Amino acid sequence: MARKGSIKTPLTILAISITLFATLSHHLHRCVVYQSTSLSTSFPSLSSPLPPQPPLPPPPPPQFLFPPPLPIPNSASWDSSATSSPSSISTVSILISDWEVLVIASPETPLTPGENYTCYFGHNSSSPARFAGELSFGRGTAFKCVLPENNRQRSPYTKPRLVRSDQIQIPLFEREIAAADLQRWNSLAYDSFTTEHDVVLFVKGVNSRQGNNRPASDLRCVFGDDPSIAVRTAVTSSAQEVFRCVPPNLPENSPQKISVTLEIIHGKDADALILPSVAHYALHEERTIEFSEPTSLMCACTMVYNVGKFLREWVTYHAGLGVEKFILYDNDSDDGLDRRVRELNRAGFDVRTVYWPWPKTQEAGFSHCTLYAEQLCQWMAFIDVDEFILSPTWLDHRKPSPNMLKSSLLPKGTNPGRVGQVSVKCVEFGPSNQTEHPVQGVTQGYTCRRKFDRRHKSVVMLEAVHPSLLNMVHHFKLREGFKTSQLGKHRAIVNHYKYQAWPEFRAKFRRRVSAYVVDWRQSINPKSNDRVPGLGFEAIEPPGWAQKFCEKTDERLKVLTRRWFGVNSSAMIWQSAFYQTMQSMASIDQA
Ligand SMILES: *[C@@H]1O[C@H](CO)[C@@H](O)[C@H](O)[C@H]1NC(C)=O
Ligand SMILES: *[C@@H]1O[C@H](CO)[C@@H](O)[C@H](O)[C@H]1NC(C)=O
Ligand SMILES: *[C@@H]1O[C@H](CO)[C@@H](O)[C@H](O)[C@H]1NC(C)=O
Ligand SMILES: *[C@@H]1O[C@H](CO)[C@@H](O)[C@H](O)[C@H]1NC(C)=O
Ligand SMILES: *[C@@H]1O[C@H](CO)[C@@H](O)[C@H](O)[C@H]1NC(C)=O
């Protein structure tokens, strides 16, 4: 695959078309309070001419494509009792928030494309199963069902059976629906990732407080479904929801895929023994990332929910500055993210998604991203879709160049003082009199901001990330010998379009992302820094919202992006692509 340097061709393609974005919401990520360390030097050089040839995009992941059925391992967590009738599907189920049940169908169970599925909960109650997403690395297909109201009084809750809607056989199911408990989200091994050297587990409920991590020596990793014969290995790191296990030495005749979890062997709650798990370790499993891909210098990773309408502007802009790959952790978007991503892929941008349905796990998701991208990227910008990196040194450039981020942000020379992370200050923009999403994009619509910078965002060298993968959402703990460099505002800032037009901002209320940040809707901790000043606990537009957070006019990025990405006096390149896509989507839909 060619090095992704140019945006010329994508722009040309994008430029063919016209129009505006649909109305959707996006969620709020925030910069994290941070004390600066050292200041690194040097100014960017002039941009080089655009190299040709954007790469081919990666093929979109297959949907509903399953291998032929294999014998299901006798796993403690997959529901193997359900294999007795033809219509049954092997699943694990987790009760998450708001009476929603995440039902993950084993990849070994054939699902029929285009069929409707139902969750059957017993006592004649069922609810439709909504297709939610494919877990990465073929770990299964996720559905969501609502626990029916008349089953909510009965604790322990029964785990639903996932069945084809046209194959419900109530009498048979009633006999089979043993009181298998639903997994609870507060204490669960939910995912695992096998690296060359170890097995990384993602577990909720062991380290519940920020900064309060149980020693690794209190824990052991347990590989196998039967605890009496399971293989146990040492835990080498315990931080937040991330645990690293020495890989198991499994007997040759072990099942292909076994469950993996943690066991608490010392300290408080040691009697709690083995944590429930929906995570699996597959024997001989390697990461399924294409190792033949050349490593990119700069990538971006973020967690997204319904950001479809912001994506094109954000990707176009940052790709123009040298971000070669975009990795989106999709928190269950329902605004057609996949189609948006495919459309960007067709336009030559390398954008991929990882379906990440786990509630309140932003830190863990970013830890996962560093593993996922280890071989794909040297530097990773952890910036959100409402954040745009800007260096004042670019302001008089006629065109963007893929060399710009490198020369403005990254340390220089062969021995750059072991800088492993650069931290960029954020400035927060207000609604700037907008009352709805600005059709030409956020960079055009929001031009008034708070005067002083708040918080920061980071660009991290993945090799420098500490093995604990510990992060405060937007900066990482580094290995010994690496340091963080805080860039001055003359070198770079992040324009954070944080307080947007009211309909946009309102949508953020419903979704909070970090595991350790208080939900805005809860009325505890009213003085928290995470709250918006002047905002109560309800999503009601405060008087004068459109004029709030406006202390300083800042049109630098507006002017720059107009020069770089303007089609004519009234349209930006990201508007036009949408029209083209809408047309082609309409013709596909009609076909
Ligand atoms: C600007 O370009 C768009 C998209 O190509 C087009 O629809 C629009 O009419 C143009 N406007 C002007 C003022 O030229
Ligand atoms: C699935 O359900 C939808 C909505 O109820 C219906 O239109 C569609 O025909 C169903 N598909 C199948 C294969 O039954
Ligand atoms: C379920 O419904 C059937 C008929 O619809 C009824 O005969 C049966 O008793 C019901 N079972 C339960 C457990 O409510
Ligand atoms: C994803 O969205 C859900 C539902 O709104 C929310 O509870 C959860 O915290 C989000 N998870 C992440 C990792 O952002
Ligand atoms: C918002 O509108 C007010 C009143 O018309 C005006 O004075 C102000 O300059 C506007 N602010 C921005 C950022 O456009």
Automatic annotation (TrEMBL):
<dbReference type="InterPro" id="IPR008166">
    <property type="entry name" value="Glyco_transf_92"/>
</dbReference>
<dbReference type="GO" id="GO:0016020">
    <property type="term" value="C:membrane"/>
</dbReference>
<feature type="compositionally biased region" description="Pro residues">
    <location>
        <begin position="49"/>
        <end position="66"/>
    </location>
</feature>
<keyword id="KW-0808">Transferase</keyword>
<dbReference type="GO" id="GO:0005737">
    <property type="term" value="C:cytoplasm"/>
</dbReference>
<dbReference type="GO" id="GO:0016757">
    <property type="term" value="F:glycosyltransferase activity"/>
</dbReference>
<keyword id="KW-1133">Transmembrane helix</keyword>
<keyword id="KW-0472">Membrane</keyword>
<keyword id="KW-0328">Glycosyltransferase</keyword>
<dbReference type="Pfam" id="PF01697">
    <property type="entry name" value="Glyco_transf_92"/>
</dbReference>
<feature type="region of interest" description="Disordered">
    <location>
        <begin position="45"/>
        <end position="66"/>
    </location>
</feature>
<protein>
    <recommendedName>
        <fullName>Glycosyltransferase family 92 protein</fullName>
        <ecNumber>2.4.1.-</ecNumber>
    </recommendedName>
</protein>
<comment type="similarity">
    <text>Belongs to the glycosyltransferase 92 family.</text>
</comment>
<keyword id="KW-0812">Transmembrane</keyword>
